[in-house]
Amino acid sequence: MIDTVLFDLDGTLLGMDYNDFEDKYFNLLANKFTKYGEPEKLIQTIWDATIYMVKKADGKSFNNERFFKRFNTLIEPIKHDIYLNGFLDFYDNEYDMIKDATFKMEYMIEAVRILKDKGYNVIIATNPLFPEVAILKRIDWAGFSHKDFSFITNFEICRYCKPNIKFYYEISEKINKKPEQCLMVGNDMLEDMIAKETGMKTYLINDCIIKREKFYEPDYKSESEGFLRFVENLPIV
Prior knowledge:
The protein is of the alpha/beta class. It has 2 domains: about 5-15 and about 100-230, HAD superfamily/HAD-like (Rossmann fold, 3-Layer(aba) Sandwich); about 20-100. The protein has 8 helices and 8 strands; from the N terminus they run E-E-H-H-H-H-E-H-E-H-E-H-E-E-E-H. The protein has a 6-stranded parallel β-sheet, covered by helices on one side. A two-stranded antiparallel sheet has the order 2-3. The chain is globular.
């Protein structure tokens, strides 16, 4: 029996214009470090380190360790602490300026409330490309408290990224649940729906859908309003 619901965050619980969000994110981040180097070079360095983090998962290192292992090889050693402290300050301050590229999804807010009332274990299974502080802020922008969720992925505590199927096995182990007990809810036809390969059921939210050339057919799909109706009909755990 399913007793645990995993939610992607961006585009699933938090509505967003992806292009607007990405543009604002990198523009603000580049401006933060303008005096330390060319903005375009910094953005490329961040992308390079992110790709390394995603592709070089070894099951031992945490995502943030791999990110900075690569990032630090691409910048001058004297700037390592400058960038690390700058990133932390960025998420504490400038990051909030990106909020207007997002919007609350009221049906999803109500769906999470009902799931909790019915006794389901509710998890945030966002792609752990960001530090905890950034993810907690986006949870807040979406109209939730971090206390609404019993487990939240981030790049300090996860060893894999989507669409690596081991990401979902890792979560299952951390929350002590079998995949068959879980429903993965997301808007990405590859990165979220691949969870079905573990034995999880999957639900595709279409409001901010991300289509891929390679994809997995979900067990269920609808707009967020349809998901609310689905949740209303679920049994009490």
